[in-house]
Q: What sequence folds into this?
């Protein structure tokens, strides 16, 4: 059996019987062919990558309400005259359909907000920070106004690039985390790379993180993959700083951002 | 949202699909198959709406052929998985999103149903009302296009050699 033939059979394998002669022959070919093993390992790696990097979004509360309201209205429709029969039938199906509603909502990539999602969000910040390369900027400039203007119309909030002391603004870009579009600014401070993220934070909680308070502001802090991060919410937005700078420096930088805003 | 690329459209479709599911709940034969049943309703709703309103060129399905599958070779039998993993790990979320959004809608739907939602090809074929071979072909093309696009990003940033 040649590679192309074996690959075709195995690619379509889920509709073939496991014990069919062509499948057995293709399996045998795969067992002895490093090229085909590499081909399927590659496919598997890409599949796993797509699954891992396709985050789900939380179910918007208004959508859940709308769906339930619609079902309730439909159930009250005068088309079915016998209410008692309808109620009896509906009761039995209600549990199944309620589960179904959740699943359908899941179809478009929505799932309930969980601690796991919060952890993924933080992990995403760290991973993005670690992936930074000079060529990753969509706007490369040390001019604050130019970088801020670049984000106008691209995100649903005004981006203010903080003027950190003894640091250089390198640029910025859009980033996507857990299905959310955010702003990502890059700085160089004391030789270290510093990432500053802003996301619409209406459904992002930072409660699971180690807490620290500075003035009236609460921060969430943590360390992952050798990088420190600090997160906080302010006026409906979530802010994050990620760097390998000492924690005390990150807290000071975050406080510097908040103080002028709070006045 | 992963399929429609539009949050409002996705919400409208979910509402419509939920209502259809409620009205047709008597047709659900096996409660354990509720997920596939609901996906089928949703995909039908989506495809009907998409075909009525889309200006995207119609997809030309190519049967999955041996030649197509043989075109991908590895050098001296070495697994490319490690370099591929390295490349993929360097990709930024918005690049992945852009590459994914760049796929034709009907290819994107298959990749999502298979690789994200974990449906088997025959289940997807039933949901989309097309032959399993078409699903396999779209899946192969979708993954190949994603890989190409992500490699293109990497080349631009000189992570990999031209």
A:
């Amino acid at each position: 059996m040649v590679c192309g033939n074996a690959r075709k059979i195995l690619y379509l394998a889920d509709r073939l019987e496991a014990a069919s002669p062509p499948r057995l022959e293709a399996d045998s070919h795969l067992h002895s062919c490093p090229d085909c093993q590499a081909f399927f390992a590659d496919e598997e790696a890409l599949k796993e990558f797509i699954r891992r990097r396709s985050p789900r979004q939380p179910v918007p509360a208004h959508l859940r309400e709308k769906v339930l309201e619609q079902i309730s209205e439909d159930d009250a429709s005068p088309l079915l005259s016998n209410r008692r029969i309808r109620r009896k039938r509906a009761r039995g199906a209600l549990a199944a359909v309620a589960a179904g509603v959740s699943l359908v909502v899941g179809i478009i990539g929505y799932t309930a907000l969980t601690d796991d999602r919060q952890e993924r969000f933080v992990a995403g910040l760290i991973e993005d920070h670690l992936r930074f390369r000079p060529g990753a900027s969509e706007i490369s400039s040390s001019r604050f106004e130019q970088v801020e203007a670049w984000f106008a119309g691209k995100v649903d909030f005004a981006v203010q690039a903080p003027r950190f002391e003894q640091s250089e603004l390198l640029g910025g870009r859009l980033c996507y985390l857990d299905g959310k579009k955010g702003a990502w600014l890059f700085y160089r401070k004391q030789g270290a790379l510093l990432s500053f993220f802003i996301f619409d934070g209406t459904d992002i909680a930072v409660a699971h993180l180690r807490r620290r308070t500075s003035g009236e502001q609460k921060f969430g802090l943590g360390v992952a993959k050798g990088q420190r991060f600090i997160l906080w919410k302010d006026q409906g937005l979530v802010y994050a700083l990620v760097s390998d700078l000492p924690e005390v420096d990150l807290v000071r930088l975050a406080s510097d951002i908040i103080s002028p805003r709070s006045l | 949202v992963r399929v429609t690329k539009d949050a409002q459209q996705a919400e409208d479709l979910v509402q419509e699909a939920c209502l259809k599911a409620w009205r047709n709940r008597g047709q659900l034969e096996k409660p354990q198959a509720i997920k596939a049943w609901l996906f089928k309703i949703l995909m039908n709703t989506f495809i009907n709406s998409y075909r009525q309103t889309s200006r995207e060129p119609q997809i030309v399905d190519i049967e999955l052929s041996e030649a197509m599958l043989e075109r991908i070779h590895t050098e001296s039998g070495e697994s490319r998985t490690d370099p591929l993993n390295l490349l993929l790990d360097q990709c930024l979320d918005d690049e992945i999103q852009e590459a994914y959004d760049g796929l034709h809608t009907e290819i994107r739907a298959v990749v999502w149903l298979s690789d994200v939602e974990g449906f088997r090809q025959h289940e997807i074929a039933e949901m989309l009302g097309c032959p399993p071979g078409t699903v396999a072909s779209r899946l192969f093309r979708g993954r190949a296009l994603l890989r190409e696009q992500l490699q293109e990003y990497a080349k631009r940033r000189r992570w990999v050699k031209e």
